[in-house]
């Protein structure tokens, strides 16, 4: 495992990322941009499910935000993996990084359960309020865990 992680750090693209003055800050900024879009879409979607913005049609509103959340998560995944690759061995040994990855898995699982209940854009069935609250707590915790990585290493 250690060799695998050290191997990631030696990939040409990763060495280029380390060597360039611009590349890492740009990837970091794109990670923050993706996170901002993800958290905004998740919060708006969950608040709508919990009864806010009732004047907006629920199915269309949620369908738009779901697409936004998927795209934003894809961006966070790509940019986050690039940030990880620069110090893969170090991050993989950090409890706060592992906590963040676990939270992402749980939040993603919660999102998939919610999507199954919402049946692809229809009015979400009853019982989704608890999933919406969980989603708010989990994704916000991912955000905090991500920010703490920089302070606990
Ligand atoms: C999906 C896979 C993801 C991976 C592999 C990943 C990985 C990383 C890495 C390695 C860092 C740099 C940590 C440092 O040294 O400061 C970072 C920063 C951060 N990540 Fe992620 N991340 C992912 C997704 C997310 C998501 C979904 C969120 C929020 C919901 C998030 C929130 C943050 C925050 C707030 C920072 C600190 C940015 C800064 O202040 O510079 N990450 N991430």
Order of helices and strands, N to C?
A: HHHHHHH
Strand content: under 5%
What's the main sheet like?
Answer: none
Residues in helices, as a percent range = over 70%
Overall tally of domains: 1
Average pLDDT, all residues = 93
Unreliable stretches covering 5 or more consecutive residues: none
Give the end-to-end Cα distance, rounded to a whole number of Å: 20 Å
Write down the Rg.
Answer: 18 Å
Silhouette:
elongated
Which kinds of small molecule does this entry bind, naming each only once? protoporphyrin IX containing FE
Question: What characteristics describe this protein?
Answer:
binds protoporphyrin IX containing FE, 80% helix, 153 residues, 0% strand, mainly alpha
Summed up:
With 153 residues, the chain is mainly α. The protein has one domain.
How are the SSEs ordered, and which strands pair?
Elements: H1 2-9, H2 12-19, H3 23-49, H4 58-86, H5 88-92, H6 95-118, H7 128-149
Bound molecules: protoporphyrin IX containing FE.
Residues 28, 31-32, 35, 38-39, 76-77, 80-81, 83-84, 91, 104, 139, 142-143, 146-147, 149-150 line the site of protoporphyrin IX containing FE (HEM).
Describe the structure.
By secondary structure, the protein is mainly α. It has one domain. It is 80% helix and 0% strand. The protein has helices at residues 2-9, 12-19, 23-49, 58-86, 88-92, 95-118, 128-149. Helix 3 runs antiparallel to helix 4, helix 3 runs antiparallel to helix 7 (128-149) and helix 6 (95-118) runs antiparallel to helix 7. The two termini are 20 Å apart. The mean pLDDT is 93.
